[in-house]
Amino acid sequence: MTRADVIIVGGGLMGAATALFLRQRGVSVILLERDLVGSHASGTNFGNVRRQGRFLPQLPLANRSREIWGRLPEVIGEDAEFLPSGHLRVAFSDAAIGKLEAYARDARPYGLELELITGNALRARFPFLSPEARMASYSPLDGHANPRLAAPAFARAARRAGAEVQERTEVLSIAKSAEDFLVETPAGTFRAPILQVSSGAWGGRMAEAFGEPVPITPRGPQMGVTEPVPYRIAPVLGVASDVTEEGVYLRQVERGNIVFGGGLRSEASLDTKRARLDPVNTLRQLPYLARLLPAVRALSVIRTWSGVEGYMRDDIPVMGPSAKVPGLFYAFGFCGHGFQLGPGVGATMAELIATGSPGVPIDPFLISRFAASEGDPR
Amino acid sequence: MAGPVIVVGAGPAGIRAAERLVEAGLRPVLIEESARDGGQIYRRQPEGFTRPHEALYGSEAAKARALHAAAEALRPRVDWRPETLVWAARDNALLVNAAGRSESLPYAALILATGATDRVMPLPGWTLPGVTTLGGAQIALKAQACTIGARPVFLGTGPLLYLVAWQYLKAGAAVQAVLDTSPFMKRVEALPWMLARPGLVVRGWTYTRDLQKAGVRIATGIMPVAIEGDDRAAAVRWRDATGQDHRTECDAVGIGYGLRSETQLADLARCAFAFDAGARQWLPVADEDGRAGVPGVYLAGDGAQVRGADAAELAGRLAACAALRDLGTAVDEIEMVTLRRRLAPMTRFRRGLERAFPWPANLAAALPDEALVCRCEAITAGTLRRAGGEYGAPEVNRAKAFSRTGMGRCQGRMCGLAAAEVLAAARGEPIEAVGRLRGAAPVKPLPVATEAAP
How far apart are CA B157 and CA A76, in angstroms? Predict the structure, then answer.
């Protein structure tokens, strides 16, 4: 039987980053991943390293994460193609303009400076944008990275730092003895006094097994990518809209392809572990992409994909200590916006586990928020 | 399940499937990606070209004429949709794109007759202008009356290697060499299987004899080393069976190592796949009549297993019989038994071809690190090997995620099988252990300007 200070169940970006930062604090770690590190939501998401537009109380965590993104080569030995090339939220309506203005004002106390650009200035600086664009909120230090590379790179760094990373190792059951969690897998039983659940969309089942059910639904993002064209579009572009279908986003990678997503989501299955993209959703995305970036109409989509993401009813994640079980911690259910947060979540969870204090405020994310509600939280 | 029966692909399998459905009184939808019916082997020349069937299809002229006539007779009795790409599948419906407009076609049954493409093993220089696949070289001749060059070399293995070289010879090209990776002894060893269709064996011999008579160099058991040239293919370097190196000058190269089934649509229609050791390819699982594991989906022709055009005609008809029976239409058992019996020697012959002209998997291990494997994304063998080694990718989808191999316009249709060989060899694992690339929509690129039909 293998024992460590901490067992992390789930090798997505959250789990892998937590493992690395725990090792940096001298804590011994076993990371258990059912499939391959980063093969679900962490590897199939859009790759946004975006702070603007987030739930405001999440900004301190996002700022901490952004700081780590900025020094990835030093932290994990590679950059995961992180490009701090800016992020634009584009408004097409009066309502959206009002929201951009309010957000820019409200984000400033959190240290996020946003530039609101309109009219000729908007067209002069970002000539590729649609002439219909009325206003854009520019976040110069946000950007994007390659989700296929980030979580595996964190896991390799964690392994180099001494973490035991077990892929293709499914957790069959978790029991709690007086002092330890006993985690049974086909590769044997692992034990540790501290356990972190960071199993994404599957986190709800584990929390429920510990007597803490949460309202979480698996869904699949609708992603796609065009053929490559010369690299011209530095910032990530997203539509600011309350209408789900209009809310598309895109980014051009240096290789030249334009990656896109947004709008409606498809069904995902915790049992088959697959989210099937609905090609009808792709068709619905196309006109909104073309409205945002008219030149994209000349290109072709070469691939689409989806992945299993966990969405909380209130659209904010579960993060922090269990309200019921001593030594149990959660970091899951990041509602499709966890990629940017990943490194910061890892640092914060490691600090919380090692010192008892998270370092940034995480109160809004505590699982105890659901215990207070009446009846079945789902 | 509502809707018509949809047949995808108007080659030998698709046409015969549609024909059988029409005989039963149905009006199937027949979807074809190109402008005309006939498939690849009986590909028609463009409208207005007037070469006779004998000139285009040689010994197969009678079959081509019969199939084209059948297709024309079907035209008013089916919902004929040429120049239509099936780009995705969902919940018993296909998404098809024609003239910039995508619509959803629900089906009661789906017969996939998606055919095959050339199977390619990369080698240094294979992306130079002037290098094309054997199938491409043949289509240039058949459809456009063009050759890929005046002095071509044909390189690879399989019956198509000799057929294309022979067709080029007949068309007046100065074929410089036919270079076959398969040792001649393999053909001898495979004879017990090949003799299931003795006529084809004899025909293969006549192609070889004609080429030899014309003074064309034919070498078997060779190892390709590289295609050389500054801005286009100018020579092939190769090693003969005794280990001696050669350099054959040319102005074009046709390469191909047999065929690979086109299986993405079966994948998108959620068919189960199994590894076929003879083909060294993951193939959709189907029963003898073509029923896939998914209710309502049927597979026929080279897209299910590469047995050639004659088998495809029979398998198309058989799959239609199976679909009709499953939909509640009576089908005489004798008809199905007869079709199955006629297919049996063709299946046996296919196994013979796999023995006689094996896919040279060993070349993947020998491929230099700097050689391109994935030409869409310009990924080298070395990068792919690093994904499997240093980065620990245990299977092809993971290696794709790390290296971009198979992530480009062709989505791994061209490089996928070779990439799997490179990865397996680098990891020292059997080919089936590295799995297969999961299919994803669109099957072929979908223009962003595509409109959704209401």
Answer: 47
